[in-house]
Amino acid sequence: MTQRMFFALWPDDALREAIQARVPDGHGGRRVARDNLHLTLAFIGAADTAYAECLSLAASTVTMEPFEFELTGLGCFRKPGVLWLGDVVPRDPLVRLAQDLNTALIPCGFKPEAREYRPHVTVARKLKAPVARAPIHPIRWSVDGFCLVVSQPGPDGVRYEVVQRYPV
């Protein structure tokens, strides 16, 4: 059996509310469910049990110090029609965590994305109209660990479930 999975930063309830409060109307897209909001560090895709166990063990070797960053902007990826909050400041600690995690997963057979890492929180999908990039009132995010998350398909769409936490 395989499951779709990814590693992410998982916001608490207050952070989820702040994120949702910054999402404008008028784009015609479908908002991401509040409980599914996250910031992806490494997208795995389909993983069988052995691969998932290897990835989980490899992720547990990643060390990090707690850090903070702010989401400072709103934008969209036109091709998939995705609205996001991002423009992370400072970028370095978050990018370093994503790179360290991706590197740790390689011995399991994981292939990191070739394109540049662009940290963001997807807040709406299937936009009917593109949204101009704009600053937002910054949202401060304190990071003291990351998670392994699986996608659970259901009658009302996909639900994300944290299956493992990796605290600092």
TrEMBL record:
The active site is at H38 (proton donor), H120 (proton acceptor). A motif (HXTX 2) lies at residues 120-123. A motif (HXTX 1) lies at residues 38-41. Pfam families: 2_5_RNA_ligase2. Keywords: Hydrolase, Ligase. GO terms for molecular function: 2',3'-cyclic-nucleotide 3'-phosphodiesterase activity; ligase activity; RNA 2',3'-cyclic 3'-phosphodiesterase activity. It catalyses: a 3'-end 2',3'-cyclophospho-ribonucleotide-RNA + H2O = a 3'-end 2'-phospho-ribonucleotide-RNA + H(+). InterPro entries: Cyclic_Pdiesterase (IPR009097), RNA_CPDase (IPR004175). Its EC number is 3.1.4.58. NCBIfam families: 2_5_ligase. Belongs to the 2H phosphoesterase superfamily. ThpR family. Hydrolyzes RNA 2',3'-cyclic phosphodiester to an RNA 2'-phosphomonoester. This is RNA 2',3'-cyclic phosphodiesterase.
